[in-house]
Structure formats: structure tokens, C-alpha cells
Amino acid sequence: MLDTLRTLFLTALHAFHRRATVRYPEQKPYLPPRYRGRIILSRDPDGAERCVACSLCAVACPVDCISLQKTEADGRWYPEYFRINFSRCIFCGLCEEACPTYAIQLTPDFEMGEYARSSLVYEKEDLLISGTGKYPDYSFYAVAGIPVPGKARGMAERERPPVDLHSLLP
Amino acid sequence: MTYPVILTIVLMPVVLLGLATVLTWVERRLLGLWQDRHGPDRVGPGGMLQAVADGTKILFKQDWVPPFADRGVFVAAPAIGMMAVLLSFAVIPVTAHAGIAGDMNVGLLFILGMMGVGVYAVVLAGWSSNSKYALLGGMRAAAQMISYEVFMGLSLLGVVMMTGSFSLRDIVAAQAGLWFIVPQCLGFGVFMLAGIAETHRLPFDLPEGENELGAGFHTEYSGMKFGMFFIAEYAGIVLVSCLVTTLYLGGWRGPWLPAGVWFALKTCGVVVFFILLRASLPRPRYDQLMALGWKVLLPLSLFNVMATGTILMLRASL
């Protein structure tokens, strides 16, 4: 009996406690920078697309929501199209882990509701942003060993000149 | 019949149904308050129009009678429940003059009788639904309500003995000096418990215990027929609160404020207490509920009747 009354009293006291509810549309929750939300394609510091159409993200994707086609231009690889079906995406972040060029990144944005399912298929122009995302100074071709126009083999950062096979000098 | 009485008869159901509808919102807000949430606060100022939105929605829902149900009884059951509750309000004296039949000389018996009729609503609903959960719920409801009606009647006897009348207006008049909650505290406790069980409210909502029976006796009901059970339940809460106010808390009596305001305030207080009970107490097992009734409340109410009678007789002989 006393226990019951005590329970009643303690419950009534909860009227003065802080509300646990986050009033979402007005009060946005804090999302950490590495929150796994909407997927974007980022660019180099000099504005070129980072994606080299290696298809590793599409291979890593457990729900097969990424679809892309490689094309070549100016001596390097680009995606001809890059399509993410967000009605399938589970926001696992495996594509971001698989990406060798930091091109595909997940962002702290989840407000992407649509009325039509087909509106959830994002094309390359929907995914591509103008900035560098989480890695502001990273430029894949500046550190990669692959030669591109304007940068021969051995000219990348922290890269030694290639070994001259015809020389016997150590 | 005089003009104000007819007006009251017309107004009372309107006010009551409105009150019961708003109470669904009040309950959800209060539960939210005690559970560190906000509750429904989006529709209208403070969410006040939530009840309107819910009512509109439920009116437009398909009003479906299952093909396996006993159609006539199935349709009649919610109407019986609603009618029993609404008729009971006829004998509630809101003030010394307001009310429909506040000084009916068998007012209390009338209410107990109407509560007996209310049992038919749940039993018939459970029976005519022709499904297991509904039948189990209906059976539980019948057992629970019939058992608790016994102690409810017995706990009220103390009040009736002290007043010497079954008329609710006389009962309030007899509380001029001291509210009956003091001399009849035992009866008050038993009546509160029986009242919760009678309206099958949490924590005694075993007839509709959702974790074991789906929704109990109204499992098969949809649309406004379900809505009528729902509204009848909330009107039942108001009714029991009105009764507690009338029988134990001195009815409309109180200083400074007008009589009607006092009655409304006290009733609201009891309603809030009912909701607080829901917010804090877990549901007992079915056998525990029955054991509490027959092994604790019945002896307590009998003792209350005996003690009240003894004291009254001793006082009369002095």
C-alpha cells in the first residue's frame, strides 16, 4: 500500500523532469561529422572529379544500389554515369570505406524523403558536390603513381623517380 | 417538466460526449507529462484539436461487422454501454439546483443498476464477436465487473447509512460539516478501487489487456463502434469521478467559488488521479485481481458497514 502511494508520488514528480523528447522539425539533433547519411561525390581541391570509376563501391555495396559506367577522357577515368538508388541504400558506409580516392562520402544529412520512389534514384549531377567533403587537401592524382597529362611517372608527392632498368648503377 | 430540466437533458449528453472526447487528449498529454514526454501537442493550440482530428478520422473509418459475428447483438453492444453510462449522469447533482434528477430518491441504486447494465455491453460485445480474444475479454470483464459491483455497493452502504437516504442530493447535503472521505475513508478506498475495476481502467484493465488479449472484448470492433466503447469508457471515468466527488468529497460544497465550479474542480482532480494511476501502476494478474477483490475488499467493506452501523447505533442510543 505504502509502496503504491510512493510510486504514485514519484510518478507525479516526473511532471517536473526535463523532457526526453527532441522536438525534431524545430529542434534539430546534433549529428557528428562522420554520421552516415546522404551519399555525395566530392571533388579535388582543384575542382576535378575525384571518382575514377573503379567500381569498388558498387562491388562493396551489400544491397547493389550503386550503378556506374567507366569512360575515359583527358587520359584519366571518369564515371560516364553514376547512379545511387536511395530507396535501396542502407547507409552502411561500405562504399566510402572501399573508395580508393575519397570520392564517395556519407554526410550528416538524412532529410531526403520523397513522395515518389523514382525520385530517390540520384544521378551523378545530384550526387556531385563542388567541395572536397571530409578531406580538404587530398588529391588522388597528386599522390598516385599513375601518369596523367601534366604529371609523368615519378612526379607525384613522396614518390621516387622510376628505376632505370637499363642502368647498372645502384 | 420545467424548461431548465429539458435544457439540461439536451445539453448534458452534448457536454459529456465533448468532455469524454477531450479527455482522450487530456489523458495522453498527462501521460506524456509523467513519462517525460510531450504527448500530442501539434494539432491546434497545445494539441487541443487532437481529439477533433481523432474523432474525424474514426468517423471516416470503415464501419465493419465481421461476417462471423452475431450482427444484431454486435451492433447493439456499444450502444448499450454508451446508454448505461449516459443515463447514470441523470442523477448526478452538479449543484443544489442544477442536474436532471439529482434528488431522485433511489439515485444511488439507479447508478448501481446502470453499472449492472453496463456489464451487458462488454459481455455481449465479447460474445457476439464470436472470436477467442473477444470472448476471453468479455468473460474477464463479466467476472471482474460483477465481483467489483458487490464491494462497490457495500462500500457505498456506509455513506447511505450516515445520510439515511439514497438520494445523491441528500448525500451532498449531509456533508455540510464534514466530507464523508474522513469518516468513510475505508469506504472511499474500496470505492475508488472498485470504480477503477468497474470502468476497467488501468491498472485493472484486464478485460482489454492488450499484451494477452489483443484488445479484449472490442477486438473485432472498428470505426465508430469502437469509438463508442472508447467514449463510453472515458464517460465512465467522468461518471466515477463525479460519484467520488458527490459521495465522499462534499459534492458542490466549497468556499468562495460558485457551486458548479467546485464540483467541476473536484471531479477534474479525481479524473487526473485516475490518469496518474494509469501512468504509474502495473497491471496485476487476473487471479490477483480477483483475490484482491474477494479476499481483501469484500471483508474490508463488510467491516466498514459493520463499524459504521455500530457507531451510528451507539450514537443514537446515547
From TrEMBL, chain A:
GO terms for molecular function: 4 iron, 4 sulfur cluster binding; iron ion binding; NADH dehydrogenase (quinone) (non-electrogenic) activity; quinone binding. Residues 39-71, 80-109 form the 4Fe-4S ferredoxin-type domain. Its EC number is 7.1.1.-. It is a peripheral membrane protein. GO terms for cellular component: plasma membrane. [4Fe-4S] cluster 1 binds at C51, C54, C57, C99. [4Fe-4S] cluster 2 binds at C61, C89, C92, C95. It is found in: Cell inner membrane; Cell membrane. Its main location: membrane. InterPro entries: 4Fe4S_Fe-S-bd (IPR017896), 4Fe4S_Fe_S_CS (IPR017900), NADH_quinone_OxRdtase_chainI (IPR010226). SUPFAM superfamilies: 4Fe-4S ferredoxins. GO terms for biological process: aerobic respiration. It comes from the Bacteria. Its cofactor is [4Fe-4S] cluster. Keywords: 4Fe-4S, Cell membrane, Iron, Iron-sulfur, Membrane, Metal-binding, NAD, Quinone, Repeat, Translocase, Ubiquinone. It catalyses: a quinone + NADH + 5 H(+)(in) = a quinol + NAD(+) + 4 H(+)(out). NDH-1 is composed of 14 different subunits. Subunits NuoA, H, J, K, L, M, N constitute the membrane sector of the complex. Belongs to the complex I 23 kDa subunit family. NDH-1 shuttles electrons from NADH, via FMN and iron-sulfur (Fe-S) centers, to quinones in the respiratory chain. The immediate electron acceptor for the enzyme in this species is believed to be ubiquinone. Couples the redox reaction to proton translocation (for every two electrons transferred, four hydrogen ions are translocated across the cytoplasmic membrane), and thus conserves the redox energy in a proton gradient. This is NADH-quinone oxidoreductase subunit I. It comes from Komagataeibacter intermedius AF2. The lineage of its organism: Bacteria, Pseudomonadati, Pseudomonadota, Alphaproteobacteria, Acetobacterales. The gene is nuoI.
From TrEMBL, chain B:
It comes from the Bacteria. Pfam families: NADHdh. One of its GO terms (cellular component) is plasma membrane. It catalyses: a quinone + NADH + 5 H(+)(in) = a quinol + NAD(+) + 4 H(+)(out). One of its GO terms (molecular function) is quinone binding. Keywords: Cell membrane, Membrane, NAD, Quinone, Translocase, Transmembrane, Transmembrane helix, Ubiquinone. The chain crosses the membrane at residues 6-26, 73-94, 106-127, 148-166, 178-197, 226-250, 256-277, 289-314. It is found in: Cell membrane; Membrane. It is a multi-pass membrane protein. NDH-1 is composed of 14 different subunits. Subunits NuoA, H, J, K, L, M, N constitute the membrane sector of the complex. NDH-1 shuttles electrons from NADH, via FMN and iron-sulfur (Fe-S) centers, to quinones in the respiratory chain. The immediate electron acceptor for the enzyme in this species is believed to be ubiquinone. Couples the redox reaction to proton translocation (for every two electrons transferred, four hydrogen ions are translocated across the cytoplasmic membrane), and thus conserves the redox energy in a proton gradient. This subunit may bind ubiquinone. Belongs to the complex I subunit 1 family. This is NADH-quinone oxidoreductase subunit H.
